[in-house]
Write a structure and sequence with these properties.
Rossmann fold, 20% strand, 6-stranded mixed β-sheet, OB fold (Dihydrolipoamide Acetyltransferase, E2P), alpha/beta, 11 helices
């Protein structure tokens, strides 16, 4: 049976013929395709061709690698009935894209925020004036995922037109080549413009208090997502969104709202940094020396651009900072892999010694 032709509900969540082909081996095994809508401890909410389902995830919580655990946006294969009688998650399809930030633990493993995303709406408040360094960090995260980033400036009604124009200009400098749009989700102004630049599976990404849930409700056409006020002193908000949840959009596509990000660590974001700082990378290609550090080297095209004002010193400093962070994260990941290989080697040696010892006793 073709799930693609018989599942209009799944198609509304992004199911297509390519996924149908990928799923064929699971279909032959009697498994059912589903998209993960939300994840809880030991359970995940999903949507199937027959409607919503709550499936157990017996192996996911015990996974050695948190990257292998299911997350919102994943496409999954469900067994119709697990040991507890409810559907059971049997496998995840390979992720086309994934937003991964550095985990908070010391083992250098990443955390997947959302999977199979097409558009990342980097959401910041025009009223709070977007911090360029934070915006560049979020853009690197978005670019590294493989999705297309868009910068959305919210709360345009809280400041004057001149302030909105200034915020747009500053965001455009930090995000060259990326669409920058502004709106007032509460008033409805500019929401159509935002909607026009979003497509497919859309994730709202940004700090607390940026108005992601309010924007999400405007895009959804209903007050589905919880919202809260921000503090008057610093413009920061509480985490009114406490989990990632996937919801269908009225005009097609789906939306994932995410909790506010107070800190974003980059995880193996080399390509994301190259695309975020494409202007700096283009200048660097013209430097006299291939290993130019853009510090004091003669013939440095990057420093020349800073001197003539075509590249800001702040942007160069931001580029250097994120490059250093990326190099540190890569070294940390390499150290973890070396430790894992050494642990495996020691375990194998111990097993071999025990086996030889037992064989000696048998003789």
């Amino acid at each position: 049976m073709s799930h693609f032709s018989d599942g209009p509900l799944l198609a509304a969540y992004g199911w297509d013929e390519s996924l149908e082909d990928e799923f064929s081996v699971h279909s032959a095994a009697g498994l059912t395709p589903a998209r993960v809508v939300a994840v809880h401890r030991g359970l995940c909410e999903a949507v199937t061709a027959d409607g919503p389902a709550r499936a157990s995830t017996p192996h996911a919580d015990r996974a050695a690698d948190p990257m292998a655990a299911p997350c919102t946006g994943d496409w999954a294969a469900l067994h119709p009935a697990g040991p507890d009688g409810r559907p059971m998650l049997a496998a995840l399809l390979p992720r086309r894209t994934a937003i991964v930030r550095a985990g908070s633990s010391r083992d250098s493993r990443g955390q997947v925020l959302a999977a199979n995303v097409d558009t990342v709406a980097v959401t910041v408040s025009a009223a709070a004036r977007p911090a360029p360094a934070r915006l560049e960090r979020l853009l690197a995260l978005a670019f590294e995922s493989g999705a297309r980033p868009v910068v959305v400036l919210t709360k345009a009604d809280e400041v004057g037109p001149a302030d909105v124009a200034l915020a747009e200009a500053e965001a455009a400098e930090a995000a060259p080549g990326v669409d920058v749009v502004s709106c007032s989700a509460l008033a409805g102004d500019g929401v159509d413009v935002v909607r026009a630049v979003l497509s497919g599976t859309v994730v709202l990404l940004g700090p607390s208090g940026a108005g992601k849930s309010t924007l999400g409700n405007a895009l959804l056409g209903d007050a589905v997502l919880a919202t809260g006020a921000v503090r008057a002193g610093d413009g920061k908000g509480r985490h009114t969104t406490v989990r990632r949840e996937l919801l269908p959009l009225p005009g097609g596509g789906v939306l994932i709202d995410t909790p506010g990000l107070r800190g974003v660590g980059l995880q193996d974001a080399g390509e994301g940094l190259r695309r975020t700082f494409a202007d700096v990378e283009e200048l660097a290609a013209r430097c006299r020396f291939g290993d130019c550090a853009h510090d004091t080297e003669p013939g440095c095209a990057v420093l020349a651009a800073v001197d003539d004002g075509s590249l800001s010193r702040r942007r160069l400093d931001g580029y250097r900072k994120l490059l250093r962070e990326g190099a540190w994260a890569a070294a940390r990941s390499d150290a973890r892999l070396r430790a894992e290989r050494e642990g495996h080697r020691k375990a194998l040696t111990k097993w071999q010694r025990q086996m030889y010892k037992e064989r000696g006793r048998d003789r």
